[in-house]
Amino acid sequence: MPESKTKFNNNRSIYLAVSFLLSMLLIGVVGFSIIEDYSPIDALFMTIITISTVGFREVMPLSFGGKIFTIFLIVFSFGIFAYALTTITRFLIDGVFHNYFKLNKVRRRIENAKDHVIICGYGRNGRQAAIEAKQHGFEVLIIEQEDSIIKEFLDDSKIMFVKGDSTRDDILISAKVDCARALITTLPNDADNLFVVLSARELNPGLKIISRASDDNSDKKLRRAGATNIIMSDKIGGQRMAKLIAQPDVVEFLDHILIQQKSSVSLEEISFSDLGCNFTKKTIRELGVRDISGVNIIGLRNKKGEYLLNPSPDLEICCEDKLFVLGTDEQIDKLSSLLSDMKQ
């Protein structure tokens, strides 16, 4: 059930309960005022002790008409009072009231979300993707429909989430897919991932979309649907296991750089499209990346999408190129700062 529908049902229950209760109070006050000529406060007192069945004495002895009216008021108000009391108590005690404000807070954050990462499905893969994205400084928004997982999100006000089926366009729109930086879909069913990719690509043609795939035949379909990258968890896992036998030190070295959360060494990409054309037609040697920061250039991706490993120092840089550099966190930060200063 989408979050908006859940909210509507909760609101409708409390509105109905309060409306029924107020209606019975109004009927009782008007009835006692007309039949017994009570003052407004006496009529209200009589109405409350009647519908709540607390058993206090009446303000004044009732006439025959007053007794008949009281009987009908008790009969018709008993169920309404019990329903109202139960609903209001649940709203206040069971967390509905508390969650209502949490949901409003999350909703306001989503309304202002921009350049965020949407993760569809919060299973094992989705959970890990969210952790990694946060560690890289991205705002994460999760689309999930399992109530047990949504309950986890309600306990953490820092998590942005939308409850619903991520294959539906309206759910993706409510997650601000048009303003998102990237979308990761980790649903267990390849067909569902395909629907998500199709919808997301239509809603945001420039979006980076990463999809999980289980079946080898799904790879091409997902790419045709608009996925930028396809990750086959089982295949990657099997390859890594085999590599650990053949080249264990190489795998552990790469894990140390790419996967370990507290690694002191980083592998980063530098896009020259973000730095303008100040570096166009300069060679890697003229950039002096290692001299000014200490990082090492280990690869380059050119405008054709081709990868060059250990590029030559005499290679000229174009605006569309990306450099892959390896260094400590301090060296990477120093390089980023120096390139930003050179841009200005």
Describe this structure in words.
The chain is of the alpha/beta class and 344 residues long. It has helices at 3-35, 40-51, 64-93, 96-111, 124-135, 147-154, 169-174, 190-203, 218-225, 233-246, 248-258, 284-287, 289-293, 329-343; strands spanning 117-120, 140-144, 160-163, 182-185, 208-212, 229-231, 265-271, 296-301, 307-309, 322-328. The radius of gyration is 32 Å and the shape is elongated. The two termini are 51 Å apart. The strands form two sheets. A six-stranded parallel beta sheet has the order 3-2-1-4-5-6, with helices on both faces. Strands 7-10-8-9 form a four-stranded antiparallel beta sheet. The longest helix is centred in the N-terminal third of the chain and has 33 residues, at 3-35. 55% of the residues lie in helices and 14% in strands.
**Distance from first to last alpha carbon:** 51 Å
Rg, please? Answer: 32 Å
* Mean pLDDT across residues: 82
The largest sheet, given as strand count, sense and whether it forms a barrel, is: 6 strands, parallel
Overall shape = elongated
Widest beta sheet: strand line-up: 3-2-1-4-5-6
User: What proportion strand?
Assistant: 5-15%
Count of DSSP E strands? 10
Can you tell me the residue ranges where pLDDT is under 50 for at least 5 consecutive residues? none
Secondary-structure element order, N to C: HHHHEHEHEHEHEHEHHEHHEEEH
Based on secondary structure, the structural category is alpha/beta
Tally of helical runs: 14
Residues in helix, %? 40-55%
